[in-house]
Specification:
Largest sheet: 7 strands, parallel
Helix content: 40-55%
Strand content: 5-15%
Order of helices and strands: HEHEHEHEHEHEHHHE
Radius of gyration: 24 Å
Oligomer: single chain
Shape: globular
Number of helices: 9
Structural class: alpha/beta
């Protein structure tokens, strides 16, 4: 090896380091890209809690809302483990609380709004001959008007974001095309049907702004731990009448984790053509 070659072997690594290290250091000093933000209603249990868990694990900023934060034990424990989860008090039927939340986050982009909060109530109060008409009012207030109230209040936040997505959980029970015996759940079915129309209308209204509106049926989700019941344990009251069908396999429940995992995948790939349609959690298009 000549003296020149030996000299070059010593100098080249030093020159490369002198050029590259400042660039690498500057790149390391650059702040990481800001994570997306999702706001979830009814985040204290069931599907809402699972949405919170999965988006928190992905590193998103999660604004998890619930009517009674002090009683949301599981949600509070989840937030304690994930500093990217913020819990906010929100009753979606309250003009004042929705307005206060919107004011607090004014100017803050929200990439994804998940309208999850809903009311089902006991089957026996929703049967012909036993109909509870006060329940009709509450069902419409929570299942139809509430999601629209929240959406309207936070619409500019969504419009200011990168992803611009609004997701509302509908129900096959509110589909005229899927209506079959047994005829029951009058308040719940009617309120969900109203919700479907409102979200379809919204999708048409906000399409020129590039906002995508997804209406998703989460499936028959075990939000009360029925699948974990031990022999002899009594089911929750709202599931008592359905237990014979569940045990016979005529009604198949899925876990919140299964449902939300599929819905998150669907939301990730949501296309403009799917906006305003009624989708099953597995991506299948459902009839209105």
């Amino acid at each position: 090896m000549t003296r020149l070659q030996s000299l070059l072997r010593r100098l080249v690594p030093a020159l490369v380091a002198a050029v590259m290290l400042p660039a690498l250091s500057a790149r390391a000093a650059e702040p990481a890209a800001e994570q997306p933000t999702v706001l979830i209603t009814g985040a204290n249990r069931g599907i809402g809690l699972e949405f919170t868990r999965q988006y928190a694990a992905r590193g998103w900023t999660v604004i998890a809302t619930t009517r009674r934060p002090d009683e949301a034990t599981e949600l509070r424990a989840l937030a304690a483990r994930h500093p990217n989860v913020v819990i906010e008090r929100l009753d979606i039927t309250s003009d004042a609380e929705v307005a206060a939340l919107a004011a607090k986050y004014r100017g803050r982009p929200i990439d994804l709004l998940v309208n999850n909060a809903a009311l089902l109530e006991k089957l026996e109060r929703q049967l012909l001959g036993k109909l509870d008409y006060e329940l009709f009012n509450r069902s419409f207030a929570i299942n139809a008007i509430g999601p629209l109230r929240v959406t309207e209040a936070l619409l500019e936040n969504v419009a200011a974001s990168t992803q611009k997505k609004i997701v509302t959980l509908g129900s096959a029970a509110g589909s005229n095309g899927l209506l079959n015996p047994p005829a029951n759940l009058y308040p719940y079915r009617a309120s969900k049907a109203a919700l479907h129309l409102l979200m379809h209308n919204l999708a048409l209204d906000v399409a020129p702004r590039g906002i995508r509106v997804a209406l998703i049926n989460p499936g028959l989700v075990d939000t009360r731990g029925v699948l974990k019941l031990k022999p002899g344990e009594a089911p929750p009251e709202e599931f008592a009448a359905l237990m014979p069908l569940i045990r016979a396999g005529k009604i198949k429940l899925i876990t919140p984790e299964e449902s939300v995992t599929a819905m998150v995948k669907l939301i990730d790939g949501l296309t403009p053509a799917q906006s305003g349609t009624f989708l099953n959690y597995d991506g299948q298009t459902l009839p209105w």
